Amino acid sequence: xxxxxxxxxxxxxxxxxxxxxxxxxxxxxxxxxxxxxxxxxxxxxxxxxxxxxxxxxxxxxxxxxxxxxxxxxxxxxxxxxxxxxxxxxxxxxxxxxxxxxxxxxxxxxxxxxxxxxxxxxxxxxxxxxxxxxxxxxxxxxxxxxxxxxxxxxxxxxxxxxxxxx
Length: 165
Description:
alpha/beta, Rossmann fold, four-stranded parallel β-sheet, 5 helices, about 20% strand, globular
């Protein structure tokens, strides 16, 4: 006879997320992070936050974290997913275009190469007012959207058997 527990596997562990933020525009970053924390708290997730200088540093920081998991494998410290937050406001030069393109491309490359659950919460806006509108505590908060995307990717990875709980 088979034990009933065989038919009821244990629930997966709550997701643990690394939030990497570039708080260059502190008020915007705070609004995005508040949205992320609200969503992660509601999902029962845990998280850590690390800061980098700017959006351009986000891909490298996520890659460092992925690499660090190889070194700390024996400690059990793992991140199920990553959320990146930042804001790039268009200026008078083409610097904006380069930063936005390379940040997005770098994060996409790392996400695909390492099969990461990654929520992209980097605002690329034409004005500070546009950034404020996307960091407010309402239904348009892009931090909330980035957290939902990350949690959705984690759920998909679990469904496909890519996590060992």
